[in-house]
Amino acid sequence: MNRVFLTAIAFISYMIMSGLLTQIGIILNAVSSSLNATPAATVGVFSWLTGGALCGTFASLFLYARHSLKQVLIANYTLFLLIMLVLVVVAPTSYWPLAVLLWGLGVGCGCGLAGGAVILSKIYHEAKRASAFLATDCAFSAAGFIFPSLAAAIIAVQLDWVYSYGAVGALALALWAMLFFVRFPATEADDTNAASAFSQFKSVLTLGCV
Questions:
Q1: Calpha distance 18→49 (Å, rounded)
Q2: Which site among 41, 65, 124, 148 is 20 to 30 Å from 201 CA-CA?
């Protein structure tokens, strides 16, 4: 049963990323209206979301080498939910406040996505690991259908576009609650000190000589 919940956590982390990215085209006009800008000028704000995801993935190289899975994931999704709450409550109407919030959400997605990959690599043996990672594509695609459809419905009834992102936040809240009741697999960080963890991080970034 613990493996089922761990797998669900990994899959949901992929769905959160997909949920934020795949609805951009649906909400673009609504976002541009709230920013009082053209869609062409507005679309660039979402590059902060994808840029944040890149930063989060890069940061995870260090975080998961130094801290346990549970510690990092709880901290990550706590911050993610706080940023999402600010986005929904404030509903920014200026470019830079929105860009900063999207960047923060992207960082959370990138770090969470890396955590999901670590979970799958730890709980599945080599024979089943490939199938598990292929199944994440199904989770990504499912979210790519569900959340754009929901976003279209929200825009159609003339609600603020931030509620479509808030729906992704509700999924993140469910994941966050699960983190406290699941037993996570041990990683190298559970048996290494900070100095050796930093050495592992540097070794990943150091190009080897052939």
A1: 12
A2: 124
Q: Which amino acid is at 134?
A: L
Per-residue model confidence as pLDDT tens digits over 47-91 = 999 999 999 999 998 999 889 999 999 999 999 999 999 999 999
Q: Which amino acid is at 28?
A: L
Torsion angle in degrees (nearest 10) through CA of 195, 80, 78, 82:
130
Q: Say if residue 105 is exposed, middle or buried (CB neighbours under 10 Å; 0-12, 13-18, 19+).
A: buried
Q: Which amino acid belongs to residue 67?
A: H
The helix or strand, by DSSP H or E, that contains position 168, with its residue range, turns out to be: helix 162-179
Other residues' Cβ atoms within 10 Å of the Cβ of residue 80: 26
**pTM flag (> 0.85):** yes
* Confidence check: pLDDT of 1 > 80: no
* SS3 (DSSP) at 45: helix
Task: Name, in order, each residue with C-beta under 8 angstroms of 129's C-beta and a sequence gap of 6 or more.
Answer: 120, 121
Please write the tens of the pLDDT for every residue from 143-194.
999 999 999 999 999 999 999 999 999 999 999 999 999 999 887 666 655 4
Residues 6 or more apart whose CB falls under 8 angstroms from that of 203 comprise none
